[in-house]
Homoserine dehydrogenase
Amino acid sequence: MKPIQVGLLGIGTVGSGVFNVLRRNQEEIRRRAGRGIEITMVADLDVERAKSVVGAGVQVVNNARAIIANPDIDIVVELIGGYGVAKALVLEAIAAGKHVVTANKALLAVHGTEIFAAASAKGVMVAFEAAVAGGIPIIKALREGLTANRIQWLAGIINGTTNFILSEMRDKGLDFDVVLKEAQRLGYAEADPTFDIEGVDAAHKATIMSAIAFGIPVQFDKAYVEGITQLGAADIKYAEQLGYRIKLLGITKRTDKGIELRVHPSLVPSKRLIANVEGAMNAVMVNGDAVGTTLYYGKGAGSEPTASAVIADLVDITRLHTVDPLNRVPHLAFQPHTLDAAMDSLPVLPMSEVVTSYYLRLRVADQAGVLAKVTGILAGAGISIDALLQREADEVGGEGSTQTDLIILTHDTREGTMDQAIAQMQALPTVLATITRIRKEELN
Amino acid sequence: MKPIQVGLLGIGTVGSGVFNVLRRNQEEIRRRAGRGIEITMVADLDVERAKSVVGAGVQVVNNARAIIANPDIDIVVELIGGYGVAKALVLEAIAAGKHVVTANKALLAVHGTEIFAAASAKGVMVAFEAAVAGGIPIIKALREGLTANRIQWLAGIINGTTNFILSEMRDKGLDFDVVLKEAQRLGYAEADPTFDIEGVDAAHKATIMSAIAFGIPVQFDKAYVEGITQLGAADIKYAEQLGYRIKLLGITKRTDKGIELRVHPSLVPSKRLIANVEGAMNAVMVNGDAVGTTLYYGKGAGSEPTASAVIADLVDITRLHTVDPLNRVPHLAFQPHTLDAAMDSLPVLPMSEVVTSYYLRLRVADQAGVLAKVTGILAGAGISIDALLQREADEVGGEGSTQTDLIILTHDTREGTMDQAIAQMQALPTVLATITRIRKEELN
């Protein structure tokens, strides 16, 4: 049988990885897939650079539509990124009857419903293992490995840049800005790191996993997104003293009222495996009612780890492209006609309805009665305290006035309730700076 | 479409879990599979107990062959265990055109070649996610998630009983025999724990993963198997002082000469995630040339975790039972006609050809010259020393004679070379007890 023919849209870091791994392991992959898989066309604006990567024998064009128009191409791999031209090209490829593999989490988190509907109507597959957590086969685990389960929650370190920054802040006791510059110098953070450090990239990935876990449409617009730019070295240190580490987690959880979907820094017990995932590594915990808690760990980015996921999708499509679409795994794990009803019964909750526990740090005047006022406000709101840490007072400013840090861990409470309590505490004249609030997840 | 019909052979712990989870999550599972999955027949020698589990509406028989003979049954789930009647029934089910799901690692590790050949000839699937690491979808990850990769090695904690025992030995400083009794009392170890504590169960699972990882037939007879019965609390304590924990690992590795396939206690750096997998939990590390190192963690046994894996297989078969067998994933991940050639080019190596590093503990007389003799023997064999720990001498016996423990960590060396060096050291009159040798794996 002749090899299945693949066209790459974009041959940057990931595209080069896909090309190199497919060529290096072609015998191994053919022994698995039962058929060769060959990249026969590449589109890139920089034709010369693309040619230097793929060498002779692969057609390089500067117009992606030449690939989509080529009837010999079976699968189009979209590695352009973003919502603009990538969206148009993916939809055109689908319309042309091509199967699509993409690593584009932003596109799927925002326009997934439209794209998957188009693919279903045309009977083609859109595969996206590479969109979440790089080489870790987490999409396959969720879509196929845990199908017996009612998934209860998942929580993941799904952005390597921010995990690298947080690891460095903890190891070296440095503040965010300093470590960000180092990460940029080392290539762990981009020149414009906004999507990573503000949590947007993690929220794209959490949105996709939420849909697959619970059988709801992708709803990025309803995700709560908070990054790591406000974290200070002091909070990381205090968390450590209390037995926690701070990680940027993408979390989605089933509750009686609906689905929580949120990305924010979180205190995690130091003894959990996921608290010990360091540097640019990724990990996702998934809790199902039958299986209990499972964890998946590996490189979440980079040329060949991401290529590993792209090629796994190519192999799956090579196996299944001739079968009836009903015999394939649905794009979002659940039969597509059931998604809308599930959206009604499982709405994504506003952040004010999320229930979790909290770490609070208050900069207070070191004088009698402060603690009573603060704990009184919490008690009045029905928020119970799990642990309290009062630091020795620092001398600051003139006239012997002193300040101190008051750190409070709470039990579970509704975010809206906590918002009100924080506003009340913030209004106290003895609370001298903006209160730091970090959510805490026990993950058990 | 009418539900796909499943017959259970055996309804003990796992079978009950399969029945209960399938019923509890039937809507969720139907939304994924696109079709209902129902257990309509159960065979068990204890018909009354079986009836009390499944209630009315499910036919209970005491003869498994009645299920195999029933033309309405699409899939047979074998949960009997062992090589005897289970083998006969699996082969009969295949011959009757049934798809088979099994959790039986012993059967597949020993008779897999025969069983998979029969299934391929008949065009049916034999699925076995539950045979390795319970609910962790490690078979799916290896067979489908990492298809891009040339797998280099994998190492797993794949027996919960022994991991529980080792965790307790470390936590409480107790010796093996004491903890085994406790584990039996708590139900973590069976009345006859031989298969677990001697490493046989782990070797069955490692054998299956080795075949899938490297594209070779299952070759349990060539696995090296060593259990944990000889481990003492002292070794666990010394390992800890050197920055290691001791875990029973199933390891399989690709080398220039062939495949290593071995189960034995191993020192693992304490900072590795897998070193922190405690109690009855399982975890498998997989290293591929593209993806790097990945890890999969979860419950390796128990009623519902194992049921989670069995049902995932039922869903896969429900999707794929009507397609051409060529469109399915091959049983052992690689096209079956390629396995025999791979066995020739990738032979499973005898243990004497394995290259690893070592922890050695020698009980020696506390007198001048002992260290020089021991290190001289190692140097003579070309074995270099990574670290050396000499304990303070203990007073033992009369006349002021003292003994001490000498602990040596070596760099990589061939097992056969180490065997000879140990024999030479053992022959020294100043070496007073049997030398303890534990292999050490850096896993990086």
